[in-house]
Amino acid sequence: MKRPYQICSNCVMDTSDSRISFDKNGGCDHCNDFYEKVKPNWHPDERSRKELEAIAARIRSFGKDQEFDSILGLSGGADSSYMLHLAVKEFGLRPLVFHVDGGWNSEIAVNNIQVLVDKLGLDLYTEVINWEEMRDFQLAYFKSGVPHIDIPQDHAFIATLYNFAEKYNIRYILNGGNVSTEGVRNPMEWLYYGTDMPQIWDIIRQFGTIKMETYPFSSIFKHKIYLSYIKRVKVIKPLNYVPYVKSEAMQFLQREYGWKPYPQKHFESRFTKFYEGFWLPERFGFDTRRVQYSSLILTGQMTREEALEKLKKPAYDPETIDDEFSYIATKLNISVDELRHYFTMPKKFYWDYKNIVSVFVVGAKILKALGVEKSIKR
Amino acid sequence: MITIIDYGLGNIRAFVNLYERLNVQTKIARFPSDFNGATKLILPGVGAFDYAMTLLNQSGIQGELERLVLQDGVPVLGICVGMQILGKSSDEGVLPGLGWIDGQVRLFDASKIPFKTRLPHMGWNTIKPMQENPLLNGLNEESRFYFLHSYYFDCADETETIATAEYGLRYACAVNKKNVYGVQFHPEKSHSNGIRLLHNFARL
Amino acid sequence: MLYPRIIPCLLVHKRGLYKTVRFKDHKYVGDPINAVKIFNEKEVDELIVLDIDATTHGSEPDYRMIENLAVECRMPLCYGGGIKTRAQAERIFGLGVEKIALSSISVENPAVVPEIAERVGNQSVVVVIDVRKSSISGGYEICTHNGMKPTGKPPGEFAMAMENSGCGEIVVNSVDQDGVMKGYDLNLIQRIREVISIPMTVLGGAGSLDDICAVIKRHGIIGAAAGSLFVFKGKYRAVLISYPNRAEKERLFKKVFQMS
User: Fold this and answer.
1) Which of these, B19, C73, C202, C218, has the minimum number of CB atoms within 10 Å of its CB?
2) How far apart are CA A191 and CA A350, in angstroms?
3) How far is the C-alpha of A100 from the C-alpha of A83, rounded, in Å?
4) Which of B121, B155, B173, B186 is catalytic?
5) Is residue A304 included in any domain, yes or no?
6) Is residue A376 very low, low, confident or very high in pLDDT (cuts 50, 70, 90)?
7) Over the Cα atoms of chain C, what is R_g?
8) DSSP assignment of A225-264, as one string?
9) Is-contact A153 A191, C-beta < 8 A?
10) Which residues make Cβ contacts (< 8 Å) with residue A304, sequence separation at least 6?
11) For chain B, how far is it from start to end, CA to CA, in angstroms?
12) How many domains does chain A contain in total?
């Protein structure tokens, strides 16, 4: 029986997250989890800044004889751009800056990477994913019918990050994840884990057509266990230690670097723009803006009214969507009809394919108990 | 419906692609019957004046074209050689043009061009609007367009010159008389200014 | 006023974009369509796309790819690679391409140049001359088939012959400077420039906007084409598409035209 529609009275998450639960006041579990578990541990104040300074000092000291003392993936998006600025200008770090080119860069992303790297006088590394392999990988995901079709791009990023860290013996990973704008996580039903290798292999086996010879793969075991516990690679999230108000950060980046803003989060990649703006909401009813806006509501950067108003309009631009749809099809070397077929085919989810979700769930519980990770992804 | 005239010359596809991105429907016309429902006409062209007129004369559509433009007042935009054939004749050849705008097509005086490579005039150059005209609305400050031609339109009536460019001399690079428009440059290959101009034409 | 053209040049090999050094050491740079889309968004003056496989393998041009690239271009696009006949050229023009580039065929069968030019007009026919220093004579010679077949022909004479047979533009490509990023071969450029009067574009060796500045300063209105410069970044040769923005171009041209 279909659940009646309900939207949180505090944020804008609703029953499109099928596992959402509400308390007696109509507040959802995302909000409650945030208030109870995340917010008390997040205090971007002077004390926090000093903590970050201490961490930065350790990073600098540990890496002082190395070429790089840390590593940072730059997508050209606001979070990673601002984090790079902080790391270099305010905390004197020397990160290896890399960018993963999956073949979908927007011009804005390329511009933003360039202006930051140029002005900060840094050298850039790129990992260019072989397009024929990426294409086949992405098509395999389309054919599988699942929502999380951006895994080919996501996974490439994670794998490249850890590969570089290992290659250059880097102990500290700078991650742009932040509570300020990501306090609410995307439900697993919408965006599943990008490092569940059994699932990835299952989908490739069933729907892939070429051998993945150069695509960088990395398993959850490799990076969470081997690199974290054996090589002692640490992940630092600098944006959590300082006040991070997204709109101010973007204005600063524009003034200081000539950085250009995007219409929406994650629009650095044309594919992700299509995926989050159109595919996910229109095929599955999953609108990631709900997650993003809810996060901003919880941290006082957006009001619920503003969010509701914005959500009235579609996440994609009706004027350009036909062109975008056509471009995606052309680039994937399929017909528009074939793409439409994937759009309308029966829906599948992560549980329809091999998966080790239990490992992730148990692992997350352990990490939460150890105080390492705070917010829920469920 | 914007109708792009295919008489054998010019980059038809470029116009189709450009308008598609603007969500403006277009149709390609090769035969007289293809002009049904035409509300605007694009007359492309590259290459030589005489060759363009020959092809147009052979195409069998000239009669229909003249009816639509001169009698029905359907707006038409001539591009590059498509603009030149709007004139009376050209130094380049012997055939008469359509004569819809009073002007003579002349060869640039190479001695006045201060560059080593004189002809053709090729590359991005600025245009200077001479009067308010809806075709030229909303162009960016620089107003650069892509040019590729060795002959220019010597417009007899100054009031019909809506923009000029400079190459050895200042000459008419955009003309307009009633429903007849012509541009010497290639808006279909001039990025945002070109897109704007072609969108303006669609919205006339 | 008329500005010189600054033109990115992309090489297609095995359906992907590659960059070479001295026509060897192919390095994968990514997917052509997205690269062309980005260049279009950066509002480049013109774009040259050369399929380096089509000639060596004797295959037909990849019309589907060409069509997909042309759709993304709101600036003139020049395509070269594997074009041997007028029919092929016309088919490519029909896909929305402004200019076609002839290279090996212009040496093997020069009659094809006027044959195509007569139909579509000189302005749409470009001849690309790959030039290197002969290991035997030390002088410049043309080579074909991606630098693999030396011909012994001096480039200046050949360029003149091409001009006379109706081609509308000459692209001079220095094999020795290809991908080296230490500047254009100004000597070679001078030699050819002196003997032709049709437009010329130079390719091979640009490593910075200063190199482009240098060639424009010397020759005024010229096409300055570059591959590596607009595709690589920094000492690790990170792949990142770049192109001078409007302000940078203005500064570059002001610098050049005020000083000359």
Assistant:
1) C218
2) 9
3) 17
4) B186
5) yes
6) low
7) 17
8) IIIIIIS--EEE-GGGTS---HHHHHHHHHHHH-----SS
9) no
10) A10, A11, A12, A297
11) 12
12) 1
pTM of the model: 0.95
What are the pLDDT digits (tens) for A26-48? Answer: 999 999 999 999 999 999 999 99
Crossing angle for the helix pair C246-259 and C209-219, to the nearest 10 degrees? 40
Could you tell me the pLDDT band of residue B29, with boundaries at 50, 70 and 90? very high
* CATH number for the segment(s) B2-202: 3.40.50.880
Any idea which residue has 């005039």 for tokens?
Answer: B121
E strand or H helix at B78:
strand B76-79
Most C-contacting residue of B18, B148, B171, B186 (CB-CB within 10 A), to test interface: B148
* Span B92-143, pLDDT tens digits: 889 999 999 999 999 999 899 988 888 899 999 999 999 999 999 999 988 9
C5-43 pLDDT, tens digit per residue, is 999 999 999 999 999 999 888 999 999 999 999 999 999
Return the closest-CA partner of residue B141 out of B126, B161, B130: B126
Task: Tell me the backbone φ, ψ of residue C132, rounded to 5 degrees.
Answer: -145, 170
The Cα of B21 is separated from the nearest Cα of chain A by a number of Å equal to 6
Angstrom distance (rounded) from CA B121 to CA A313:
48
Q: How confident is the model at residue C260 (pLDDT cuts 50, 70, 90)?
A: very low
| Residue A7 resides in a domain | no
Q: Whole domain around residue A355: which residue ranges?
A: 29-369
What is the β-pairing status of strands C125-133 and C99-102?
parallel
**Interface pTM (ipTM) of the complex?**
0.94
Among C130, C178, C185, C211, the active-site one is C130
For residue A119, what is the domain's CATH number?
A: 3.40.50.620
Q: Which residues of A touch B20 (CB under 8 A)?
A: 323
CB pair distance less than 8 Å for B123 and C1: no
Is A318 contained in some domain? yes
Instruction: With beta carbons under 8 A apart, name residues in chain C contacting B11.
Output: 93, 96-98
pLDDT of residue C259: 55
Q: Tell if the CB–CB gap between A103 and C38 is shorter than 8 Å.
A: no
Residues 6+ apart with CB under 8 A from A205: none
Q: What is the largest CA-CA distance in chain B?
A: 48
* Sequence-separated (6 or more) residues with CB below 8 Å from residue A337: none
Domain ranges of chain B: 2-202
Q: Is residue A213 part of a domain?
A: yes
Where do we find the tokens 């050094």? C21
In chain B, the percentage of residues whose pLDDT exceeds 90 is: 91
Tokens of A50: 């000093």
State pLDDT tens for residues A88-121.
999 999 999 999 999 999 999 999 999 999 999 9
Q: What is the pLDDT of residue B33?
A: 94
> Are β-strands A70-73 and A172-174 bridged in parallel, bridged antiparallel, or unpaired?
parallel
Q: What is the pLDDT of residue C193?
A: 95
DSSP letter for each residue of C47-90: EEEEEHHHHHTTPPP-HHHHHHHHHT-SS-EEEESS--SHHHHH
Q: Tokens 């190199």 identify what position?
A: C211
Listing DSSP states for A307-349 in one string gives HHHHHHS-SS-TTTHHHHHHHHHHHTT--HHHHHHHHHSPP--
Average pLDDT of chain A? 92
- In 3D space, the residue among B18, B4, B13, B74 whose CA is nearest the CA of residue B199 turns out to be B18
Q: Is the dihedral of CA A183, A184, A188, A191 positive or negative?
A: negative
Helix (H) or strand (E) holding A138: helix A131-144
Residue of B64, B92, B160, B188 with catalytic role: B188
Dmax (CA) for chain A in angstroms is 63
Question: Rounded to the nearest 10 degrees, what angle do helices C86-94 and C63-71 cross at?
Answer: 40
Nearest to B137, CA basis, from B79, B195, B191: B195
